[in-house]
Amino acid sequence: MKGEGKMVIMSKMKWVGLVGLVLSAFSLFVHFLLARYTEEGISDYQSSVTIFSWRPIFENSDFAKNSPLYRRLWGQVRRLESLHPDANPRGYYADPRSESSGYVFVRIQGGFHEIRNSICDVVAISRLLNATLVIPEIQSTTSSKGISSEFKSFAYLYNEDQFMAALVKDVKVVKTLPQNLKGARRKKKIPSFRVPNSASPYFYLHHVLPVLNKHAVVELVVSEGGCLQAILPPHLEEYQRLRCRVGFHALRFRQEVQELATKILHRLRAPGRPFIAFDPGMTRDALAYHGCAELFQDVHTELIQHKRAWMKKHGIVKGKLSVNSAKQRLNGSCPLMPEEVGILLRAYGYSWDTILYISGGEVFGGQRTLIPLHAMFENTVDRTSLGAAWEMSRIYGREVNIVDTKLRAPPSVVQEKKLGAWKNAGPRPHPLPPPPARPKYPHNIEGWWGWVAESDNEPESTVMELRTNAHKLLWEAIDYLICVEADVFIPGFDRDGKGRPNFASLVMGHRLYQSAASKTFRLDR
Q1: Which parts of 347-458 are beta strand (E)?
Q2: Which of 127, 138, 279, 401 has its CA 20 to 30 A from that of 322?
Q3: Residue 278 forms beta bridges with which residues?
Q4: What is the pLDDT of residues 229-254, one digit of tens each?
Q5: Could you report the per-residue pLDDT of 35-92, keeping only the tens digit for each?
Q6: From residue 178, how far is each of 104, 133, 339, 372, 405 by CA, in Å?
Q7: Residue of 291, 376, 337 lying closest to 492 (CA atoms)
Q8: Measured between alpha carbons, how far apart are the two ends of the chain, in Å?
C-alpha cells in the first residue's frame, strides 16, 4: 500500500510540473506578442519600473526660498524684470503677395545651431524675394543617413505643420516642389547657388532674384551656418523681427522630442530644488579652430592639432598651425575648463548639493574631463542619467539594423597576395619594382590613434556614424529645451569650430527673449 501511495503522489507531482511548464511557455508567448504588437503598452509598463541612475543627495531637506542668499543665487535680475521683448511687426506689415516670384528650395548642412540659424535666415530671404519657400531639407537627417523611414528630413527634428501655420502671414510655405520641378531637380536642371556665410540682401536681390524670375525656381545650398548678415540695414528691421518669430515661435520640435524633454525637466524639478544648466562648449572643432590644443595632454593634443592642420588645409583656419594655447586662454579665446566653472560657482555661493545639468552632445576628452566637476557638485547629471535608453530609442523611430563592414577579421598570411607588378616583373637585367607594402589590418589600427598616424585627412564617416550624427540633433534638441527653462544657465564657451555663435549663444538669446530677467552668467574668460 505504501508503494502504491508513493506512485500516486509521484504521478500527481509530474502532472503539476507539466501544467506549470505549459503555463510558463504560454506566459512567455503572450509577453512576446505584447512586445511585438503593443509598443505603447510596453512603454507604459516600462515607464512605471524605470530605474534612473540619479539619486539626489542634499545636505538639508529644508530649502529656504525667502533668504537673501536664495535671491542672490536664484532670483531674477531685477533691472531686467521690466524688459519684455516682442517680435511682432511694429507698423504696416503686408501679407505675402498672391503672385510669387517662384520657389526657393534649400539644402542645409551643419550641426544643430547651424541648422536653426539657417532656417531663420532662409525664411527672411524668401520674404525678401517674394518667393514660395519649400520646407528646407536638412542634410544630416535624410534617408541616406540611416535614420528611420517614418520621418522626412525636416520632420525628423521639427514640427512641419506648426512651422507652416506660424508663418502663414509672413511667407508662403509648401511641403514639396510641384511635380514638374521635382523631375527637373532630380536631373539637376534647376539653377543652384552655394550661398556664402552672412551674405548681404544685395546678393539676393541682384544675383538670386533675376535667376528666380527667369526659371521660377532656385536651389540654395547653405553650409556655413547662416546665409544672411546678422545685422540688417534699418529699413529692413521687420526682417530682423521675422527671424526672431521663426526662431522663437515657428521652430517647434516634433511632439515626441517635446514630450521627452518635458519628462526629463519634470524629473530634474522633482526634488523641489532649482537647477543650473551648464554647456561646456568643448568640441574638438572649436578647440582646433581657436588653437587650444595645449589645454589637454597626450593624445588629445595630437587630435586637436590634427584637426587644426585639416582646417588649415581647407582654408577654414587662416593663422599658424602651432599656436600658444596659454596666450589664447589668457585672451579669452579658449573654453573654460569644467573645474574652473565649478570653482567659480562654489566661490559665488552655490553649495555642493546644487543640481547641475550638463548639456551638449560632445565634451571633448570624455567623462574624465568632467571628474573634477562631479567632485565639486554631487548632483551633477545629464540627459543619460535622467532618461532610459528605451525612451531615447522611441524618438529615433524604427531603424533598420546596420552591419559595420569595416570591422572584418584580418586575412591569414597564406591569403596575402603580392602586387601584380611584383609577380609579373620581367627577367633581369630589368630592375625589379619595390616589394609590396606591408598590409595594414583593421585590428592594428584602433580608434583615433590609427588614422592620426596613417593620414593627414579626417576619416570618412560610416553609416552608423552618420546615423549617430542625426541622433545628436535630437539629443541637442532636448538639451536646448532644458537649458532654456533652467533657473540658471552658464556657458563654458560661446563660439563654434568656425568662430561663429554656437549652441550656448542660441540658448542665451532664447532665454533673453522668453524671460529677460532669468539668470544667465556670461563669464569673462
Answers
A1: 355-358, 380-382
A2: 279
A3: 358, 490
A4: 888 998 899 999 999 999 999 999 99
A5: 554 444 434 333 333 445 667 777 776 677 788 888 899 988 888 888 888 888 888 8
A6: 12, 12, 55, 56, 39
A7: 337
A8: 94
Note the residue count of the chain. Answer: 525
C-alpha cell at 324: 600658444
Cβ distance 496 to 180 under 8 Å? no
Nearest to 335 by CA among 497, 102, 478: 497
Q: Cell numbers at residue 312, please?
A: 588649415
Contact yes or no for 318/469 (Cβ under 8 A): no
Closest CA to 450 of 299, 326, 339: 299
Encode 306-358 in three state secondary structure. HHHHHHHHCCCCCCCCCCCHHHHHHCCCCCCCHHHHHHHHHHHCCCCCCEEEE
The pTM of the whole model exceeds 0.90: no
Cell matching residue 216: 521660377
Rounded CA-CA distance 238/223 in Å is 25
